Amino acid sequence: MTDSRFQSPFAWKTPGEFPPILDEEVPPHIPLLEKYKIPYIVDIHTHIFPEHVMKLIWRWFDSVNWAIAYRQDALERMAALKRNKVLQYTTLNYAHKPGMASWLNDWTFENFSRWEGSIPFGTFFPEPEAFDYVRKAVEEYQFKGFKLHCEVGRYDLNAKEFAPTFEYLEKNLIPIVIHTGNAPKKGKFTGIAFFKDLMQRYPKLKVIVAHMGADEILEYTKLLSRYENLSLDTTMVFVDFLATGMETEQAVPLLEIHQDQIYFGSDFPNIPYNLSHPILNLLNLPITDSAKRKILYENGKRLLAD
C-alpha cells in the first residue's frame, strides 16, 4: 500500500523520509524518560470523540492525505498511550455547530471513567446555553478544563455569547486549551489579533494556546510575560511534519526561557507518525533536563491536580 504521506499537501522536514507510523514494542523514548527522571508523560492535547464523530474527522484528514497513526477503537488507542508511558491525558473534543457542545460534555462524562488516566475536559460554543452547561460540567461533572477550536468552530473568541462563560472560567481559574492559530489551516477568526482582544478583556483567563500559536509562535510567546495564566502547548511543533509552520528552530530557545508555561501536547490519535516521534524529538532538543521534565511531566501534573 502506498504511504499517503507522499501525497500530503503539507511539507515534511525531509521529503520522502518519514518517521515511523507504527509503535515499536518498546518505544525508543522510554529509556530516555528514566535518564531525565521523568516518571511518565502528561499529554495536555489528546482527542477523544464519540466514534461516529471521530470517523467523520478521519474522513476529512483522508481528503488531504493526512495519515492517521492510531486509527483504532478507543480502548486500543488508550492502550497505545499507556505503551508510550503517557499516563495522564486530556479528553479534548470540540463543537462546530450550536447544540453540539452540551451533548459532547454529557458523552465525555458518561465515558471518561473507562479510559485509565484520562482527565475530563469539555467544550462549549457561542450560544445562550453555554454558561449553564459549562457550570454544570465544572460543578457537577468535575471537569478540569475545556477546549475551543476557532477554525473548526468558525467563531470569534470575542463574540458576546462567550462573555458569561469566559467570566466564570476566569474567576474560577479553569484552563481552556484554545486552537487560535492559523496553522495548519487559517480560518476567518484565527490569528493573534482575535486572541489579543480576548486576553485584554480577560487578563487572568487560564489559557493554553494549542500548537504554540503556530504559525505565529514568536508573537504568542511575547504574551507570556504579560499574562501570568497564559501558557502554550507543543502540539505538532517539534516534529518532522511541518503542517504547523517552519519556526521550530527559532522556538527551541523559547522552551528554555518559558519552561514553566509550556506543556507537552501530541494531537493523539490524529497524527501522521507514532507517538514516540514528538516525545523523542523533545527529549533530544538542546534544552536543560529541568525544562524537559517540566514540559513533559511536571507542568501538566500540576495543572491537572489543581
From TrEMBL:
Keyword Phosphoprotein: no
InterPro entries (alphabetical): ACMSD (IPR032465), Amidohydro-rel (IPR006680), Metal_Hydrolase (IPR032466)
Any one of the GO BP annotations: secondary metabolic process
Key words of the record: Hydrolase, Lyase
Name of the featured protein: Amidohydrolase
Keyword Oxidoreductase: no
Residue ranges occupied by any Amidohydrolase-related domain in the UniProt entry: 42-304
Any one annotated GO CC term: cytoplasm
Molecular function as annotated in GO: carboxy-lyase activity; hydrolase activity
Highest taxon in the source lineage: Bacteria
Pfam name, any one: Amidohydro_2
